[in-house]
Amino acid sequence: MTNKNLKFLEKKLKLSFKDSLINISEDTRIIIIAQKEQVLNILKFLKGKGYDHLALISCADWIEENEFELVYIISSYGDPHTNWENIAKSKQPIGVGVNIILKTRISRENPQFITAIPVFENAEPYEREIHELFGINFEGHPRLTPLFLEREYKIPPFRKDFDTRKYVEEVFDKIPFVEEKK
Amino acid sequence: MRKLELYFGPQHLGMVGNLSITLKVEGDRILEATANPGYLHRGFEKLMELRTWIQNFPIVCRVNMVEPDSMEMVYAMAVEKLANIEVPERAHYIRSIVLELARVASHLFGLWAYANMLGFDTVAQWAMYHRDLILDLFEELTGGRVYHIYLWPGGVRRDFPKGFKDKIVNTLHSIGGCVPDYDATFFNNRLFYERAKGIGKITQEEAKKLGAVGQVLRATGMKFDIRKVEPYAAYNNVDWDVPTREEGDAYSRLWVIRDEMIESVHMIFKLLDKMPDGEVYNRVPNPFKWNIPKGETYVRVESSRGELGLYMVSNGGDKPYRVHFRTPSYTHGLVILEKLLKNASIADVGNIMISLYVVAPEIDR
Amino acid sequence: MDRKDIKKWIKEPGKMGHKYSLHAIYFCTGCGIIEVPPVITSRWDAERFGVIPVATPRQANLFLITGYVSVKTLKAVIRTYEQMPEPKWTVGFGSCPINGGMYWDSYNTIKHLDKYIPIDGWIAGCMPRPEAIFVAVTHLWTLIDKGEAKAYVKYREKYKYYRDNQEKVLGKLDWPALYKENQK
After folding, report:
1. Per-residue b/e over B170-179, b at no fewer than 16 CB within 10 Å?
2. Pairing relation of β-strands A67-75 and A53-62?
3. More confident residue, A1 or C134
4. pLDDT at A29
5. Cβ distance B284 to B153 under 8 Å?
6. Could you give the CA distance from residue B263 to residue B258 in angstroms, rounded to a whole number?
7. What is the pLDDT of residue B134?
């Protein structure tokens, strides 16, 4: 049932965005690998088609290929009166159990990207967290201040070249117990 | 009037959990609110990259301690999807029963927090007592009151002990028999109506724009529940309904919580009737040398606060490459809370925050 | 009033009064807060031991640090501890304050809480049962009786060392020192 809606969406996407790779991976998942200039256009296109729930913006550090990969996961809320048991019989072209995983790669040397807040308003804390933990700068974001961390780190802590066990040894284990001091 | 900056800080009687809010007030009215999370940040996702797939199981339930079973479920589902493991039929039913019991326990904890903050101490004591009865059931089944480590990839760890079905039925009858008392003391009480009606009101378009899920969205009239949108475990095999309300304020959110608890109890009875016999566990390959093929996936589950998701990337090795939890309290606590606290009065901060059911360790991970 | 201890009550009424009314401060520090509401409500009633939660640090004399402490929380914990009046007792709850626990390799949690504020006793477990809190409270009573629960005196005598350790982790602290040097 959702395969019909998925194939419809895949066809529409392939028509509008020719240089992105689109394939259906499981029953209800579409993976789109896009160039970084096309990402905002694809997000606007999907929101116009009824996929209005931005679930997650995530980031993976592919250190061997010297690239960061930004991931946007989008799904649909459906209509207020959607009867979920009857989606098999419904004719609306939105696959309501569908998740769209949109991926793009940016360089690791000087990571810059553009914010998605004009399209999805709840993207603000996700981008703030990625800026703090990975070091990626988002242009146009209203407040890129620290969210979780209290101290300064030389390398942003979630990158693969930050060794957390060595950090613990150097900073926390070297502090002496009070009984040992005289 | 003068403008002041107040700290509704981590050590406060109206705060459940370790979160701090900075308020800019003028007189009694709040002009701007900023949430300061980070008091519980452990770098969870970085720690999970340093442990093997099996070593991650005892640690993953500690992301959110109010309802740890949904975290285990979402991790088990993601690993099963990447490694292509089948789950036997009886395990699906047991998983659904355990998740529904955890949902009732978590809603009772939320009821304790809300009733305590409003001043209804009697209802708070009852809710904590009934939650303890459910934790006794968990202790007999899994060995621990709070952290269960029961839902593994491939099924569940062990079968129900002898006589456990009757124990569940007796406990739920004794809790369900107190619903008229709860109604008379709290839900139909005129004081609760006066204090919660119209507070923290959010419309449906606003909620969808700001990324609301769970009972915050269901209280505005939208029937969005992941157990119906993308059914998992045994939820498709029983008849049940999604309760909603129309107004979108704190009053209707608490009523949605009450209706969900009653619906969960009915669902457990129906699942216990229909449960088939059989195995509960499909063996995984050698857990010491378990490499999962390359790939990525996103799975989601309906926890007691909303849509809980997990994005997992595997590199073909014996440890995860990247793990990212999508928690419902993230948008509720950082985006919606700041929006709803504008132009509220200082006396309503605890009311709005606890009716949104923001759990602090889910924001920081 | 316990009739068997009536001699102790007459000799040292202050100490017996402190023992049987340990007021704990309401601060949800970490993971372990999930087992504190069952303790203070009706099933495992903590009020029969004299333990009730109070609102501000100035009214409390027991600090129960439940669970792991991150760097941001350490600031709040130190501020709260320094505002409590003497005599005061601290108990570490769970295995994370003891030696790091399950997050021993995390870059943001404190591994040995003993280096930053003085601790009277520990409760092991992850999660400990509610009865473990009562075992800890009764053990604290015997320590107070013998005069061995003197962590707050240690803080006063070795304040310089504690403050040095705190500044190594948190940077320059923006509140003044609580005690002068070598205060007895």
Report:
1. ebbeebeeee
2. antiparallel
3. C134
4. 82
5. yes
6. 9
7. 93
Query: Quick one: CA dihedral B168, B170, B171, B173, positive or negative?
Result: positive
The answer to whether B149 and B76 have CB atoms below 8 angstroms apart is no
Task: Report the residue of chain C nearest A169, measured CA to CA.
Answer: C105
Element (H, E) at B94: helix B89-118
Give the global pTM: 0.92
Tokens at B355, concatenated:
């009716």
| pLDDT of B153 | 87
The set of residues, in sequence order, having a beta carbon less than 8 Å from that of C172 and lying 6+ positions away, is none
Q: Which residue of C has its CA nearest to A164?
A: C107
CB atoms within 10 A of CB B268: 21
How many Cβ atoms from other residues are within 10 Å of residue B147's Cβ? Answer: 21
Cβ distance of B324 and A61 shorter than 8 Å = no
Burial class of residue C42 (count of CB atoms within 10 Å of its CB; 0-12, 13-18, 19+): middle
Query: What is the CATH code of the structural domain delimited by C3-170?
Result: 3.40.50.12280
Q: What is the ipTM of this complex?
A: 0.90
Strand bridging mode C62-66 / C52-54: unpaired
**Two tokens at B47?**
């720690």
- Subunits close to C (at least 3 CB pairs below 8 A): A, B
Residue entry with tokens 């296109």: A45
Task: Find residue A29's DSSP bridge partners.
Answer: A26, A99
pLDDT tens column, A52-62: 889 999 999 99
Residue B93: per-residue pLDDT: 92
Amino acid found at C112: H
B203 in reach of chain A (CB within 8 A): no
Are B146 and B68 in contact, with CB atoms under 8 Å apart? yes
B178 interfacial to chain C (CB closer than 8 Å): no
A-contacting chains (≥3 CB pairs under 8 Å): B, C
Give residue B221's region: left, alpha or beta (phi > 0; psi -120 to 50).
left
Question: How close does chain B come to C48, measured CA to CA in Å?
Answer: 16
What ranges do the domains of chain C cover? 3-170
